[in-house]
Amino acid sequence: MTHASVHQFYYLLLVTGIILNVSSQVKVVVADTHSPAIKFLPGFPGPLPFRLETGYVGVDKSEDVQLFYYFVESQRKPKEDPVILWMTGGPGCSSFSGLAMGIGPIYFKEVPYDGTLPTLLLNPDAWTKTASMIFLDYPVGTGFSYGRTSIASRTDDNQAAAQAVQFVRKWLVSHPEFLSNPFYVGGDSYAGIFVPIITQMMSNGNEAGLKPSINLKGYIAGNPKTFPAENNFSIPFSHGKGLISDELYESLIRSCGFDLKPDPDSTECTEAFEAYNQCIDGINSFDILDINCPIDLPLRRLLSNENRVFSDRFGETSLSAQSISDCLADAHELFDYWFNDEKVRNALHTRKKTIETWTRCGDVEYDGQIKDVRPYHANLSTKGYRSLIYSGDNDWLVPFQSTQAWIRGLNYSIFDDWRRWIVEDQIAGYTRTYSNKMTFATVKGGSHTAPDNRPAECYAMFERWVSEKPL
Fold this sequence. Notes:
Layout: H1 3-16, E1 33-34, E2 52-59, E3 65-72, E4 83-87, H2 96-99, E5 106-108, E6 120-122, E7 132-136, E8 146-147, E9 154-156, H3 157-174, E10 183-188, H4 191-207, E11 216-222, H5 234-240, H6 246-256, H7 267-280, H8 299-302, H9 319-328, H10 331-339, H11 342-348, E12 365-367, H12 374-382, E13 386-392, H13 400-409, E14 414-423, E15 426-434, E16 438-443, H14 450-453, H15 455-466
Parallel strand pairs: 4-7, 4-10, 9-12, 10-11, 11-13, 13-16
Antiparallel strand pairs: 1-2, 2-3, 3-7, 3-8, 5-6, 14-15, 15-16
Helix pairs in contact: 1-12, 3-4, 4-12, 6-7
GO molecular function: acyltransferase activity, transferring groups other than amino-acyl groups; serine-type carboxypeptidase activity
Organism: Daucus carota subsp. sativus (Carrot)
Protein name: Serine carboxypeptidase-like 18
């Protein structure tokens, strides 16, 4: 998109009401309800070496939407360090995914579940070493966030974004010591839709004089869902990664066209798509180099085999046996066992009889109306907000090529051209910075949620960027 077309598109969104007018936001806010500092967590050895708080914030006029959050205070200079609002995608995946999978100060020890409470360990690469972070269960129905009525339990892009903005303003009322701290909005995966919309609404509210004002500086998005055509880039990604042959790729491009969609009127296109699907069947779409765990893996039934020795004829552990062991120890599964323990819920100060069974990613009644958020990025750029967009380069779901494409489509000049960035004398990825204060970075070997499997690299990336240093 050219600058002119982007601005025209954005103006059209404004006049048609796709971007919510700030008048719909509540102008008078009151404090939230939060827990005292949590000193201990079941499964973590000893007292927590960081400040953790949880709480609920009621939003909308009747406060029928109760949003649950985890707040981890910066372990460096909390009075000065940035505050980050972080959301996980889905929609419907708890933000505890971020807190305990690469970004936050703890993570699960990945060993097969044996009936005892999963163990938590300290993350040496937590982003909370240099920033305070609010991990928000968002939208309503996610994690411990809930609606008091059936109507309150349903939401859409605009309504949910307005609720998130109201949440932040109410949270700041009860945490006035953070009013002057730089504030950023962040998230990954489907939160790539949430992040720019929420940032735009915060900016609009500040301009309209809503109080308290948010010291908004920018936003962060990891492997972000952004526009519908990003699905087309899974095929060039598959070709570049060696999952399909040159001939198959050329056949797909030739017979199916630029949109790379099955064409029922073309025999070649239909056959090429069938061949393509056969090639990628069984690939872990979140990380093509990782094993592909069955969704319905019967964990409890396999527990009796956890100490069994699997050997091939050379006496070495077989790949299939190792895969089973890795799937059994998957942190995603350990989440459910940990959260559904009564001691854990008591420690987190959750409200009884609101969420019967906690699930990391659950079904939410959410209407994703906004499919393309590129105009939001364009508008935020004109306002001078900083942004960090990063891509784990092993992600098939939102390939780095698609993210590169929409950033390039904003048509901003390059400030710092494509180059490698280094962590501990090793190439951690590649980066490019644009004149609109947008930094794009790949994370070499990173998955769909890159901090999960590249925590040290992602922390270095974040720390440098948030400190306004080159990657």
